[in-house]
Structures are given as structure tokens and as C-alpha cells.
């Protein structure tokens, strides 16, 4: 984490208004939560809709913070404290992070995409950790505030930072990549997430491609070569480009994939190794290929990469295989959903061997724009081969409507009440059942997973 004097932190944050008697006080780390102060941290208060963090500054310093920012438009700053006065707290912490990153001898990996960026981040970190000290974005700290906090948490001896870059609209990836200035960037895919804001897949691709704006000179661009919106956009650009995908025209592609209950094994065109991936789904094979290209860039051979996959631990609620009541198997993929990731989840469940009953619990996919109902109906039409389907939510009912074209009505159950869904589902499960749970984050279908456990 950042360790600098009070005076240095102020300069890096773009402030010249400080209490000079504290110039040599050491600041160790940054927090935005006054309830979780570690000794020596810089406390950064924000003005929110319901509360103003400035009212907690004095208490934060009493509890061990070495210093705190204070936004100039907030009246009545307490006197005699190690405050750093700034025009805007968010801009100050962003400036601090950018300055800190420039002082580190660290390589940066930037990862974005409509789906799979968190899993790719986890896989990339696991592979790079074979040879390097690596830190990654934790949780969903991938936006204009989270990424600076991640950067400020980097240790000075970190070799590689793997930074996830999220967005909801145009310009956001541009800001993040210019702050981080990555050595290599990855776009996992272009899906339908954020159609509500960006209007089309073309708009989404344009926004994701902003990640190239901060790429260092001679840096590498890794992307899904099967996606025409990406290949056409960069075909005439002079870049160090490496593609991955299922098609054989890509630089890296799988030559054989075998699905197993606990994950997949696969071969690639660049090696004779058999790779064992302890996570389900062909879409995760693609994520693995992207991470392998990043590892190759940093000098890790394909023959070494199985060690990294063996130690892989994905962030929770992403194709997480669990054991529940009555020894039922559960795939918890409830973190988020889009049409692309829904289809991937359906494919996973269809291809899993060894279960007599395959159940899907699906909820609303959010932020899909004016065609949201159409997207949900189409998902339902892809459920042939699934034994029983439970849907939750108003849009989930459209999934049930589509499912009626391929499944018996008796095998389709639509609910607007989550507790009623759980009560209907629980008596049907046993040790020969597998249940896959998926929806957008706002639907909180992890509550169904918890009930099954």
C-alpha cells in the first residue's frame, strides 16, 4: 500500500493547502470507510446523498488515521488537524493513485469485456503468480473510485498489477486506462450488458475499445478474435495484437475440450499439454485462453501454466460449484447476467454428464433496453434439454413464456415471490439433481442458493 509522508501525499493529490506541522507524519494506506480505520491511514470523505463523510473526519483521526482530505466547499473544517484541502475528493484520490502508480516499478494488465472480465482477472493472476508477485482488483473495485483504491493498495515490490476495468457508459474505460497506462490490455468479449445506456452492441464495442487509449507504446492487445466488432475495428491499426477464440484462425484456440463435473480439460494449438481448468463451461475456456496470452507476454511458457490453473480460485458466485441439502449439486452463477452469459450457463448445464435431473433457476437480466422482453423470450427458447425451469421476476416470466415452446408446461414454474419459488423448489431436489442459479445482480438470487444449502 502507499506509504508516503503527509506532505508528499498532499503534493501527489494536487493540494498545496496543508498544515505544515504534520509534513513528516507517515501515511500508510487509504480508506473511504471511517468505520474501518487502520492505524496510519489517509481517510477520504465524500459528500453523499444521505450523509457527508466530512462529519466523521475528527473521529477517523481519533481512531488512528494519520490524515484526512477535506473538500474546500464543505464549511467549518476542524482546526489543528492533519487535513489536506482539495477541490474535489474524488479527483484528489484519482490524482494520488496516478502519481503513486508512476512511482512504482510495476507492470499493469488492464482487463475489460461485457462478460468474463472478473474470471479472466482471477485466472490471469493465478497464472502470473507462478513467477511474479501479483496483486489484482478485489471484488468489484473496477470503476472511477475502485480502481484508484486498488492502485493505492499496491505494495511497492509488486511486479504486476491486474486491474479490472468496468463501465456503464462511454468515456469511463477511457478514464481508467489513461490513469493506469497498462502494458497489456484484454477485451474478453462484446455482449449485451449496458444496451440500455449504449444502445447497440456497436456502441458497447466502441466503449470497450477505449481501453486502447491508455495502452503504453509497444503494448499488447489481447482480444476475442471471433468477435467481428473487435477485429474490424482494429484491423488497420498498428498494434501488437494477439487473438483467442474457438475458431482456428485465431492465434490461440482450443483443439479439444472435455467437460467434467468439476471443470474441463482442453488442448490448444500451441502446446501438446493437457490443461485442466477447475471451473465449468466453454466460456471459461475462452477466459483461460485470454489469461494464457497475458502469461505468455510475461515469459511464462504454456508448459508451466497448469500449475497456475491448479491454484485457481474464482471470485464467488461465478460458476461456483457447491453441495447443498440432500446432497444436491448447485452451480452458483448469480453474480450477474446478460443474454450471452445466460446462453453460456445453459450450455454448461446441458453438457454436464452424470445427473438425472437438471434444473435452472433464472431471473431477470437488467439494463437491456427496449428489447429486454424479446431477449428474455429468446433465452427461454434455448432451454430444450433442461429438465425443469424456475423463473423469478417480471422479465423472468418472459423466459418462462419462451420455454413453453420447447418444454412441457408442467416443467416450467414462474414466480414473482422468491420465497414461494424456494418453497416449490426444495422438495424436488436430491443427490441426483444439479441446480444452476443465474440472474442479474439486482435480483439477489444468491438467496435461493443459500436456501438450497
Instruction: Determine the number of helices (DSSP H or I, runs of at least 4 residues).
Output: 16
CATH topology of the largest domain: UDP-N-acetylmuramoyl-L-alanine:D-glutamate ligase
Overall pLDDT level: 94
Distance between the termini: 37 Å
Strand order of the largest sheet: 9-10-8-11-12-13
Largest sheet: 6 strands, parallel
Radius of gyration: 24 Å
Beta-strand fraction estimate: 15-25%
**CATH architecture classification name of the largest domain:** 3-Layer(aba) Sandwich
Number of domains: 3
Runs in which pLDDT lies below 50 for 5 or more consecutive residues are none
Query: What's the assembly state of these chains?
Result: single chain
CATH class of the largest domain: Alpha Beta
Category from helices, strands and their pairing: alpha/beta
What is the CATH superfamily label of the largest domain? Mur-like, catalytic domain
**What characteristic shape results from the CA principal axes?**
globular
Number of strands: 22
Helix share bin: 25-40%
How does this model look, in words?
The protein has 453 residues and is an alpha/beta fold. It folds into 3 domains: 3-89, MurE/MurF, N-terminal domain (Udp-n-acetylmuramoylalanyl-d-glutamate--2,6- Diaminopimelate Ligase, Chain: A, domain 1, 3-Layer(aba) Sandwich); 104-310, UDP-N-acetylmuramoyl-L-alanine:D-glutamate ligase (3-Layer(aba) Sandwich), CATH 3.40.1190; 320-452, Alpha-Beta Complex (Protein-Tyrosine Phosphatase, Chain A), CATH 3.90.190. It has helices at residues 6-12, 57-62, 89-103, 117-128, 146-152, 172-180, 195-198, 201-208, 228-234, 282-297, 305-310, 339-351, 372-381, 396-403, 418-425, 446-452, and strands at residues 3-5, 17-18, 26-28, 30-31, 42-43, 67-71, 83-86, 107-112, 134-136, 160-164, 184-187, 220-224, 240-244, 254-260, 263-268, 275-277, 320-323, 329-332, 357-363, 388-392, 412-415, 433-438. The strands form 5 sheets. A 6-stranded parallel beta sheet has the order 9-10-8-11-12-13, sandwiched between helices. Strands 17-18-22-19-20-21 form a 6-stranded mixed beta sheet, with helices on both faces. Strands 2-7-6-5-4 form a 5-stranded mixed beta sheet. Strand 19, helix 13 and strand 20 (388-392) form a beta-alpha-beta unit. Helix 1 packs across helix 3 (89-103), helix 3 (89-103) packs across helix 5 (146-152) and helix 13 crosses helix 14 (396-403). It is globular and about 75 Å long. The chain starts with a strand and ends with a helix.
